[in-house]
Each structure stands twice: as structure tokens, then as C-alpha cells.
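Box S2. Input/output pair 1.
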Amino acid sequence: MQHKTIACFIFLFTILFNTHKSSAQVPAGTNVDESKVKPYTLPDPLQMQDGKKVTNVNDWNNIQRPYIYHLFEENVYGRIPRIKLTQTFRVRETGDAIGGLATRKQIRIYLSTADTSAFIDLLLYLPKSKTKAPVFVGYNFNGNQTVQADPAIFISENPLRDSRLKNADGTASDSTRGIASNSWDVKNIIKNGIGLVTAYYGDIEVDTKDGWQTGIRTKLKDELKIQPAEWSAISAWAWGLMRIMDYLEQDSNIDAKHVALFGHSRLGKTALWTGATDQRFAMVISNESGEGGAALARRNYGETIKDLNERFPHWFVGKYRTYNNNASAMPVDQHMLLSLIAPRPLYVASAEDDQWSDPKGEFLSAVNAASVYALFGKKGLGTDKMPPLNTSVGNTIRYHERTGKHAVTEFDWQQYIKFVNEQFK
């Protein structure tokens, strides 16, 4: 019986973190040969429409930044509605956790008074060592119950994308408790005086091609005055993170001025777009976000725009498909998305065995965002050479490529914890 339990755990763990392809799974025809990368020219984030270059923060904030942001809205992610709905917050449960080091809080955010089925369930771990703590905030892939094997954590009520993890009604199986704990280094986060806030991204919209039909893009379209096709799943998930930030600002145990937004894989793409949209997030961390995230689209390496649109058409707005075979025709590239985070601290991370996500393309994107950070007197990576493996480099922008596959590891969290403690001191 014990062997069956272990085998089941390994099976579920494999499902949970195979959220993107690793280098071993790269489809035939995909370029993973650096010598075959074709020459490309990146748009200059400081080049304005009138041909002049941005030379000061005022012109960046008032002219160029809004212009670049609009290009991403129109061509990549769709627009995010800014109508303020009436939200309510309900404390569902509190208790001691992590061996008494933390307080566990479970909060339900009702996103609208008109539809109580539109909600986000938060799981918070706050260190008892601080009365007002900085926090990491980020989505999880399959429900809060996967983050820790704690029977007090409520199981997600919204459907999961993967049928192998769910009950007949689509909700999460009890066997999923704690299966993602290796990717959430909760104890070390807490020991370093930082809190953790997480929620299941399927509370906003289930990650399937037709998830919009039952998610907020349909439920709240009349209240938000936006049609489902005007925005994407990534923008919907970003909108949800902004609603989480609304809650964090009124929780007296959280230092809302020091919130580090974290995301892995598709949720790393989401974190970057959210951070570009909502400057209340004081730091953004992209863990292996790849194409459509931190990686340069104009590099024909690893996953492409066409790959994304064929496999995950719901992630992006319709116009993004027009660049399937011509990334260079797109008026933006992903270094410009990173530049929208300036002057806030930004961490971009890659993995050696995740060539599908193009580690070098992620690194070069961070390199080319530095010119905007320089406007604010902030230093970028300080190098244009790929660093050795398992080495963190940079200043206000930071980067590492570690050994291993597409995942979130203890090494990653060590760097992010250090970055938070340095930048938020």
C-alpha cells in the first residue's frame, strides 16, 4: 500500500509541473541550435513615434510608457478593464502553521456583489516574527491545497484543467494535498521574515480554450463593460492579481508597499503583464516565462508565437496570431515589456534544461531593458554575457540560469528571498 501511495504521488507531481515543454520534449523542427538563430533587430524602447529618443523620466512616464503599454494591449494581451467593482473580503479560517512560525489565513474575495460565484480564495502564510511583513504573491496551478499537505487548507471549488487530478465534478481530488510543496519553499520564506500569498488561477478562468465561457470574462462582462474577445486569459488572470492586491492593501499584517509578484511558466507571463499594468507591485519575478513572457520573440529559438497560438489560443488576444510567422512585424518585443517594470526591481530566471523557454532569449531581454532603468538611475544586469550556471547576476534587474528542468526549485527561492531582503530593506 505504501508503494502505491508513493507511486501515486510521483505521478501527480509529474503532471503538476509538466506545465511547459522541457528540452527533452521539444517538437521536431524547433530550433534549439544557437548557430541557427537568424539576425534580428530589436525595437528601441526609448525611440518615440516622432523619431526622438526619450532622455528623461518625465517623457518616459507620460509619453513613451503609455504608448508601449498600449501596443502590448493591442497586439499581445488585450486590454484590462479598469472599472472598480464592489468587492468584499471574508475571513474563512485562521490558525498556526509551519511549526508555529507562521499564521495561516484563508480569505475569500468576492469580486462582485452581483455574482457570488465570482471569487478568489486566498491562502496566506504570514511570519509571526513581524507585525507587518513584505510578501510574495503568486498563483498556483491546481489549488491552494497543493501548496502544503495541511488538512486545514480548503480544497479548490473551481474546476481543474487536468482531468487526472480532479473528481467527477471537476473539482480537485483530496489526493492533491501538498503535491506542489516542493515548489513553494514556505518554511524558508517565513524564516526570512517574508509572507506568502497564493491563489488558484482557475478561480478567475480555467486554463482551457473555452475557459472564458465560465470565467470572469463571461460572468462579469456586463459589469466590467468589456467583451470576452477584447482581452485574454493572461489579462483576466492579471486582473485577478490586481484584485488580490486590493485585499493586501487593507490587511494590517501585510506591508503592501513591499509586495513581490511571482509567477512560473504561463503564470510568469502573467506576472510580467500584471506588473506592467499595476505599479502597486513593488517587485516582479519571472520564473521561466519563455515565449510571450520574458524571452525575445524575434529570436527563432525554442517556442514560437505560432506554437503558443496553436496550443494556447486563449492566452493572448486575437491579433497576436497575425504574427505567427513573422515576429519581426510585431511593433514590440518582450524586452519592452520588461522595461515597463522600471524602476522597480525585476528578476528573470531560466533553467538549463528548459531550452523550449529560450534561456538566452530571456537573458537578452533583461539586458535590453536596462536602458529604461538607466533613466531612473538604476543599474541593470551589468553584463551582456550569459553568466555561469547557478550564478545570480545584476542589480535592480537580476538574472540566473540554473541547472535542471522547467520547475521552481529551492535554489530559485533562495535567490528570490535574497533579492527581496536586499531590495526591500
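Box S3. Input/output pair 2.
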Amino acid sequence: MADILTPALGESVAEATIAKWTKKVGDPVKRDELLVELETDKVSLEVVSPADGTLGEIAFAEGDTVTPGAVLGKVTEGAAAPAGETAPKADEAKVAAAPKGDGDASVPVQVPTMGESVAEGSVGTWQKKSGDRVAKDELLVEIETDKVAVEISAPADGVLTISAEAGSTVTPGQVIGHIAASGEAAAAAPKAEAAPAKAASGSDDPHLSPAVQRVVAENNLDPKSIQATGPKGNITKADALKAAAQPQAPAAAAPAKAAPAAPPRADQPREERVKMTRLRQTIARRLKESQNTAAQLTTFNEVDMSAIMALRNRYKDAFEKHHGIKLGFMSFFVKATIAALKELPAVNAEIDGTDIIYKNHYDIGVAVGTEKGLVVPVLRDADVLSLAGIEKGIGDLGRAARDGDLTLDQLQGGTFTITNGGVYGSLMSTPILNMPQAGILGMHNIVQRPVAIDGKVEIRPMMYLALSYDHRIVDGKEAVTFLVRIKEHLEDPQRFLLDL
């Protein structure tokens, strides 16, 4: 018998939960066929059959907790192998027979590698149906992961057969369909390549993925006016969003085309049920776990941004010319935060059981809002970086987050988090801890307000600061002192520039 083992779960992940068995004891299984799904606090994992045979034993039920290396069950080898081997051949014969011709070949449509640390994705809406003829490089479907949407195009001309329906969970390398290509199909494809596309759509619009279609419809865009930067000349969602942010003069030039894009409200359903994305599910689960675990409390202060703004305005042009990057506010906040963390190490610590782990390194998580949700990439060893190094590092992480190119390593291991709701206009908030961290700093909108300065009322650019902290290891005195230190450093930036 072959053991079904729990795989390695990743750095700092000690256990997983059995989410679902796809087979019952006694069911025939094939080698590499999905048997069980595991869930951790960071990612979902799939465990496949180690051999052909019959599922002989299930050692853990759904909902049980397992650790790496645990035997989940056993496969009795050999019993079901012959039957399992004949089915694919029959399917391939059926697929190959779709176009005319006895010598047709079937080309698999496979899920590509979706990036480091991305183990699975969900099949989006197919642009074609089984039996439809497709042209090579024509967009077929999008695979949605918790970081990015991956487009899959046809690998050949021919007739499509779909084997993984919309909503299915798939892994890199998995075959989700076949294209039966014949001599007739190959010969007909070049002639039909331009005309069928127009016939199907009634126009010469570029082909759009579902995500792009939504942006185009919601913003009343003309697809032909959008500059495409995607592979094979496809319009990406980022292209559509960029076009939506620009003045919409083209829409006025084509009123007849733009008018039907937004249906009347009366024609829209009163409610619409949409499945949460993988990223949104992870965000929801982790935020609730944070509330249920930590004794969270928030303390507030305000900072006069006059000194930082004056310093930035004075040197921003020279800074950008010398370092090749704009000088923002975030680098000052990171520097001030690290200075406060060094003075109050409990805010940079975490709880592990009955132990407190004090961190002597400063890996700062910076919350980034993306189209799919909030992610917190980590700026490593921020204490040894200059202001320019911090700005470049945050800029690189922000671009990777928006492009869906972040790795799992870039999303874990932070010691403290900074989130800036001010970019969206937030005046005040109570941020939720990014567990297992003990503190998170909330920045907010800069507002001109009257304040008392040396007995006189003056208008100053003021920002509210919020520190949410884990009261299990951080006392109120430490939390208040932490915010006061940040306030002092920002109102007198020479302090941390001179390491005072």
C-alpha cells in the first residue's frame, strides 16, 4: 500500500486542516489524481494520489488538524490501474474525432505556472464552448489565483473540448481541455481567422477577457481606443483601468456605441450573488482570526506635518534627480516608526504560546490596496535603509502587488505594519492587527486645522495617528509613549536623521 502524506506546508506553517476528500474508501484512483484538499492560514494545498489503485483507508476526517508528514490515508496499489488507464485513451479518441479526419491529433490546454508560491487557481468564464472552433493564440479562459489572473490562449487551431468547467480548482500543469487539430482544421483556420471573429461579435472590437469586459462596461469605454500591453496584443485589466482614469473624450465621439454599455437600473437585478475571490476569503479569515486572538486596543495622537512638508518641498526635486525616485511621506514614517520600535521593543514583538519573542530586526509591512483587496508586502531590514532605499523598496513592492507578482516570502515575516488610509481620504480609523504582530500604525488624511501654537491660533497641516496594539504584551503606557515618539520625530525630523 502507498501512504498519502501531508506535504511540507511552508515556512512557519505548522499545521493544516482537512478541507475536503474528493474520494471515498473503496473508490478507484489514478496516480496524481486529486484526493484531498488542505487549508492553512496562508494557502490551500492539494494532495494527489501517490499511485494507481483503490483508496483503501482514510486516517483523518474533514475538519481534522494534521501536521507535515502525517499519513492521511493509504492507496491499495494496482487494483484500479487498468480501468484508470483506459479512460484517458477513450477521451482522447473522442476529442480527436471532433474534427473530420482519422489522423487528427489532440493538443492539451494546460494551466501554466502561475508564479512562485501559487499552488492553485480557479477557472474563470470560458470564452468558447465545447465543440467551438478556435484559432491559435485566441483567448480561451482566465485562471484566477489569490494574486493575479492568468490568461490561457489556444495552443493550436482546431475544435475545443472543455474538461474543467468554470469555478473548478486547478493546479499548474493540469489539463483543462483539448483542441482536436486536423488537416482540414489547420487549412481552414487561416482563411477563417479574421472573418469569424467579426461574424461572432458583429464588430472589429478586440477580444476582451471577462475582467476587462467589466471595466469597459462600467466606465463606458471604447475598446478600440485602449492601448494594449498584454501578451499577443491583448488588452489587460490594467490597460482598461488606466484608460478609465483618463478623460473620456473618445466616448463622446462614438455616442451610438457607448450608449448601450450602461443598462437602465430598472433592468438590473435587485441582488447579485458573487463568489468571493481567494484573496478576499484569505483576508476575511485572517482579520477575524486576529480579532478572536489578540486583546486589541487602539490609542490615538495627532502630528503637525509642517516640518516634514517643508523639508519635502525643499528637497523633493533634488532628491528625485539624485536618486531617481520621488520623495514621499512614507519613508519618514518608516524611519520614525523604527526609532520608536527600538525604544519600545514590546511593540516589535510577538507571542508564541507562553513565550514572548522580541525581534532585533525591523521588517516593516506596508499595506497596499489592489484591485482584488488589501495585501501587506514586507520591506526587509528597513532599519539599514536610507530614505531613498525605503522609497524604492516600497515602490517596488507596490508595483509587484498591483501586478500580482508578489511571492509568498514577500508577504510573511513582518514585525510591524503601517497602513495609510489617508490616501483614500480617511480622517481616523482603528486598524486591525496583522497577526502575529503586536502593533499596526494607521496614517490618515492631512487636514488644515486651527491649532494653538505658543498661545496663538494657527492653521497647520495635521494628521491623526492611530496605533492598534496587542494589550497582552504591550501596556497602555508603552503604546502611548510609542505614538508620542513618532509624533516627536515627525515634528522634528532632524532627530532621527541625526539618530537622536
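Caption for Box S3: Confidence is low (pLDDT under 50) at residues 79-103, 183-203, 250-259. Residues 210-267 form one domain.
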